[in-house]
Amino acid sequence: MSNGPKIVEVPGVPSLADEFAAFERERQQRRDRKRARAGVPGDGAPRRARAPVRPLRARGGVGAAVAGEGGGVTTVLLSGGLDSTVALFWARERWADVSAMSVDYKQKHRRELASAAHVAALAGVSHSVKRLEYPWPVMSGPVLAGRNSVLLMIAASHDASKAGGAGRVIIGACAADALAFVDCRPEYLLIKQQELTLGLGCPIELVAPFVDRTKAQIVQEARRLGAWDAVAASWSCYEGGDRPCGACGACMYRAEGFARAGEVDPWHA
């Protein structure tokens, strides 16, 4: 019997296994067309099968839901923001061996790292901070391009180094992130999962529980999980300081989420 998490198909939604098979067929067809243009016969035969990968929770068109089963090491990428805070409590509800990891990549301020430590303490999980040195200036704006791709590699490598050589990485990307950032999209995360599994030589599962959810739905999930104190300790603002600025994009998006959820942000309570 498999010890991995049980995959429950969403009714009316293709599974990621089916989506990946379709992707492989389309890629094979492109290869054959390229070979034909070059005058090389293509037999259409499938290439050597790749190492199996586990589906992640994804948006409606490409998704399957991860049920709360299975053991192994679980690492939550914890920025200190609202989404990753709720993702930590979501993971803790499902798995026993959960830890939180933050990455210091010379963010604009240290406030979110301090919030991450506070949130992890409230969740009762261990918390580590990995320092990442880029050989060039990284923060010309509020968002670091390609950040999640790098952070996923760090977290997966950390999991692979632990006993058993397998791991699960939780990322708190939400629906709006998937629209705005390439490395938050389900199709990217599926391929990243395969890359990590092949590159590290052990099963690595990427789970994005909120990639199909709005900010308001994440606020509602925080209430259900009893994570309200942790939400109060989280930090979404692009600026540092003692209080959020209330004017940056992250603050406004957070405020809209609480308003749509019919909740008062504990920042302001």
Structure description:
- The chain has helices at residues 16-37, 82-94, 111-123, 147-160, 175-180, 186-200, 215-225, 228-233, 249-261; strands at 7-9, 64-66, 73-77, 98-104, 126-131, 167-170, 204-207.
- It is α/β, with parallel strands linked by helices and 269 residues long.
- It has nine helices and seven strands, in the order E-H-E-E-H-E-H-E-H-E-H-H-E-H-H-H.
- It is globular, with a radius of gyration of 20 Å.
- The protein has one domain: 3-Layer(aba) Sandwich (Rossmann fold).
- Helix 3 links the parallel strand 4 and strand 5 (126-131).
Brief digest:
The chain is an alpha/beta fold and 269 residues long. The chain has nine helices and seven strands, in the order E-H-E-E-H-E-H-E-H-E-H-H-E-H-H-H.
What is the CATH domain class? Alpha Beta
**Radius of gyration over all CA atoms, rounded:** 20 Å
CATH-defined fold name: Rossmann fold
* Oligomerization state: single chain
Task: Quote the beta fraction.
Answer: 5-15%
What's the number of extended β-strand segments?
7
Shape: globular
Please give the largest β-sheet: 5 strands, parallel
Task: For the record, give the distance between the C-alpha atoms at the N and C termini, rounded to a whole number.
Answer: 49 Å
Question: How many structural domains does the protein architecture include?
Answer: 1
User: If helices are DSSP runs of H or I spanning 4 or more residues, what is the number of helices?
Assistant: 9
> CATH homologous superfamily - what is it?
HUPs
CATH architecture title? 3-Layer(aba) Sandwich
What is the N-to-C order of secondary-structure elements (H for helix, E for strand)? EHEEHEHEHEHHEHHH
Unreliable spans? 1-16, 44-55, 57-69
- The averaged pLDDT comes out at 79
Lateral strand order in the biggest sheet: 5-4-3-6-7
Query: Helical proportion?
Result: 40-55%
Which class best fits the helix and strand makeup?
alpha/beta
